[in-house]
C-alpha cells in the first residue's frame, strides 16, 4: 500500500552506522554511498556483516575518527584515523552528519532553511578567448581521464566557468534536479581540467571514467556538445549487430549481404530507406539460407534456382513466405547492381498468405490486464490501446499539444479522436501525477519517466509495454480486439474501419472478413 499524499517518513536509525536522523530508506546517504564503493564482509571491529574499507565498517571508521578528533582537537587525515581503527572497543551513537561538521557550523535541516537565500546562478560567461597559441605539431594524443581525481580539478579554468554557465541554462530549460546539476558540474570539472583551445573530448575517453565515479554521462555530454568540443566516436549498435549476424558467412557472400543490408537501412538511388525493424527481419530471414550456401559457394552468383527451391522445401507456412520475400529482395538488388547474372528467385511464386480468423479476447483475460495496471501511467496506456486502438509507438510519440481537454479531443497519429469519459479521467489523473512528480520537466511528450523527465526524448517502447508483458491481453492484442469489436458492432465495413482507425485497405478488409466469419458462426446450443 503506497503512503498517503504528504506522508513523510519519521526519524529512524540507520542500519549501517546506527545514526539517528531523517532519511529515506534503511540507510543514511553516507552509508548508502559507502556501500556502493566497498564490498560486504565481516567487520574486524564489530563483527557485523557490512560494507568494509580496509576491513572495518563505516561505524568503526566513525568511532576511530571521533577518537582521533578528541585527542588531536580537530579532524585528522585518513592515515591517522586508520591507525586508531584497531583500538576501537566501543561505539558512541550519534546523529546523522555529525562527523563531518565543524562545531561552529549551523545545523542544516533537510530541504534547506526557510527563508534562506538560494545559491545565485553562475555569472554570464562566454567562450574563452584563445588569444595566441602554438599550433599542435602532432595529432592529439588520447587523454587518460581515469588518472585524474576530482580533488585535482582546475576549478579556476575559464572553460569550466563557461561550461557551468551553459549547464545552468540547460538545467533551467530541461528541468534538471539539484543532484543532477551537482553531478554534471563535477563531471565537467573532471573533463575540462587541462583543456586548451582546439582539443576534442571523445566519447570513448570519458565514458568509463565518468561511469566509475557514478557521474551522468548523457547530461555531461549534452553540455560538451553545446560547447562544440565533443566528438561521438562510440561504435553504433547497428554495426555490432551487423557484424554478429554476418558471422560465419563466406567472404564473398558476407560482403554482398552487408552491402544489401546497408542499402536497406540507408536507401539508394532508386530505393527509400526501410524501417530498422524491417532491416532486422530481412537479414535474420535470409541468414539460414546464406549459412547453408556458404559451405559450398563463395559468391551469390553461384546460387542457382535449384538451390533456392531445395531450401524452400524445408520450410512451411509463414516461414517459407517470409524467407522467400527476403531472398527475392536480396537477389533483386544483386541483379540490379550487376553482382549476379540471373535472379534465381524469379518466377518462384510467394503465394497468398492465408491469415487466420482474428479472435476476440475473453473477459477474464482483459480483467487480468486491467488489474496489472496499477499506476496512472499504465492505466492511461491501457486505455489508449484498448479504447482508441493506439499502437505502442504511437503512444510513445504523443505530445502534450495532442491533448485538447477543453474540446475533449485527442490526436493520435494525425487523426483526431473524441475523448470518452474513462480516457479523460485517466488522462487528468496522469497529468496531475506528472505535474506533482516532475514539476520542472521540459519534456513535451505526454508520457515520461525518471529517465526521460530530464531529457526531451520519448519513452521507450519497452517501458510502455512493460506492465502488460506476460499477460495474454497485451497492448497489441488489446488494440486488435478493439478494432475487431468495432467491425462486429458497426458491421464488417472496411471503409468504416479505415476511416475510424486509419487502416490501409488490406488490413481493413482482413478485420472485416474476420468479423463477418465470427458473426456468421452458428450459436452454440447448451
Walkthrough of the structure:
- With 526 residues, the protein is mostly helical.
- It has 4 domains: 12-100, no CATH class; 146-231, no CATH class; 238-336, no CATH class; 363-512, Intergrase catalytic core (hpI Integrase, Chain A, Orthogonal Bundle).
- Helices cover 46% and strands 5% of the residues.
- It is built from 20 helices and 9 strands.
- The protein has helices at 29-37, 58-72, 78-83, 158-174, 178-191, 203-212, 217-227, 237-245, 251-266, 276-294, 305-312, 317-336, 363-372, 376-386, 392-396, 421-437, 461-464, 475-490, 494-501, 505-520; strands spanning 12-13, 20-21, 40-42, 49-51, 201-202, 230-231, 403-404, 409-412, 415-418.
- A 3-stranded antiparallel sheet has the order 7-8-9, with no helix packed on it. A two-stranded antiparallel ribbon has the order 1-2.
- Strand 3 and strand 4 form a beta hairpin.
- Helix 5 packs across helix 7 (217-227) and helix 9 packs antiparallel against helix 10.
- The radius of gyration is 32 Å and the shape is globular.
- The protein starts with 11 loop residues before the first strand and ends in a 6-residue tail after the last helix.
Amino acid at each position: 500500500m503506497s503512503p498517503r499524499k504528504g506522508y513523510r517518513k519519521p526519524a529512524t536509525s540507520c542500519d549501517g552506522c546506527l545514526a539517528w536522523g531523517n532519511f529515506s530508506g534503511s540507510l543514511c546517504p553516507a552509508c548508502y554511498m559507502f556501500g556502493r564503493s566497498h564490498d560486504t564482509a565481516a567487520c574486524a571491529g564489530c563483527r557485523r556483516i557490512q560494507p568494509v574499507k580496509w576491513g572495518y565498517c563505516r561505524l568503526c571508521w566513525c568511532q576511530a575518527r571521533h577518537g582521533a578528533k578528541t585527542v588531536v582537537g580537530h579532524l585528522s587525515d585518513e592515515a591517522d584515523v586508520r591507525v586508531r581503527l584497531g583500538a576501537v572497543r566501543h561505539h558512541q551513537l550519534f546523529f546523522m552528519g555529525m562527523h563531518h561538521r565543524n562545531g561552529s557550523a549551523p545545523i542544516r535541516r533537510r530541504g534547506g532553511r526557510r527563508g534562506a537565500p538560494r545559491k545565485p546562478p553562475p555569472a554570464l560567461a562566454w567562450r574563452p578567448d584563445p588569444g595566441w597559441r602554438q599550433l599542435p605539431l602532432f595529432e592529439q594524443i588520447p587523454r587518460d581521464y581515469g588518472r585524474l581525481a576530482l580533488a585535482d580539478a582546475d576549478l579556476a579554468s575559464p572553460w569550466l566557468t563557461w561550461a557551468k554557465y551553459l549547464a545552468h541554462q540547460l538545467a533551467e530549460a530541461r528541468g534538471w534536479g539539484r543532484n543532477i546539476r551537482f553531478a554534471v558540474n563535477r563531471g565537467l570539472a573532471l573533463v575540462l581540467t587541462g583543456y586548451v583551445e582546439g582539443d576534442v573530448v571523445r566519447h570513448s575517453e570519458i565514458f568509463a571514467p565518468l561511469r566509475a565515479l557514478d557521474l551522468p554521462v548523457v547530461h555531461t555530454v549534452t553540455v560538451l556538445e553545446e560547447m562544440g568540443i565533443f566528438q561521438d566516436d562510440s561504435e553504433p549498435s547497428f554495426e555490432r549487430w551487423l557484424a554478429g549476424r554476418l558471422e560465419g558467412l563466406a567472404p564473398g557472400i558476407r560482403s554482398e549481404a552487408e552491402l544489401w543490408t546497408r542499402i536497406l537501412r540507408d536507401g539508394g538511388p532508386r530505393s527509400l530507406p526501410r524501417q530498422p525493424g524491417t532491416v532486422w527481419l530481412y537479414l535474420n530471414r535470409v541468414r539460414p539460407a546464406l549459412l547453408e550456401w556458404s559451405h559450398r559457394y563463395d559468391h551469390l552468383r553461384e546460387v542457382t534456382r535449384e538451390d533456392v527451391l531445395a531450401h524452400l522445401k524445408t520450410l512451411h507456412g509463414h516461414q517459407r513466405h517470409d524467407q522467400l520475400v527476403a531472398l527475392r529482395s536480396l537477389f533483386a538488388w544483386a541483379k540490379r547492381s550487376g553482382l549476379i547474372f540471373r535472379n534465381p528467385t524469379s518466377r518462384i511464386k510467394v503465394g497468398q498468405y492465408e491469415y487466420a480468423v482474428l479472435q476476440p479476447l475473453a473477459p477474464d483475460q482483459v480483467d487480468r490486464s486491467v488489474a496489472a495496471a496499477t499506476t496512472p501511467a499504465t492505466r492511461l496506456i491501457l486505455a489508449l490501446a484498448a479504447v482508441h486502438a493506439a499502437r505502442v509507438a504511437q503512444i510513445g510519440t504523443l505530445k502534450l499539444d495532442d491533448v485538447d481537454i477543453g474540446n475533449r479531443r485527442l490526436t493520435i497519429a494525425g487523426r483526431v479522436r473524441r475523448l470518452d469519459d474513462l480516457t479523460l479521467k485517466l488522462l487528468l489523473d496522469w497529468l496531475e501525477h506528472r505535474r506533482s512528480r516532475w514539476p520542472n520537466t521540459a519534456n513535451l511528450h505526454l508520457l515520461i519517466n525518471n529517465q526521460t523527465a530530464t531529457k526531451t526524448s520519448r519513452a521507450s517502447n519497452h517501458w510502455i509495454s512493460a506492465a502488460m508483458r506476460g499477460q495474454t491481453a497485451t497492448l497489441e492484442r488489446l488494440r486488435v480486439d478493439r478494432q475487431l469489436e468495432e467491425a462486429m458492432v458497426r458491421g464488417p465495413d472496411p471503409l468504416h474501419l479505415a476511416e475510424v482507425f486509419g487502416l490501409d485497405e488490406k488490413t481493413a478488409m482482413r478485420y472485416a472478413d474476420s468479423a463477418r466469419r465470427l458473426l456468421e458462426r452458428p450459436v452454440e446450443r447448451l
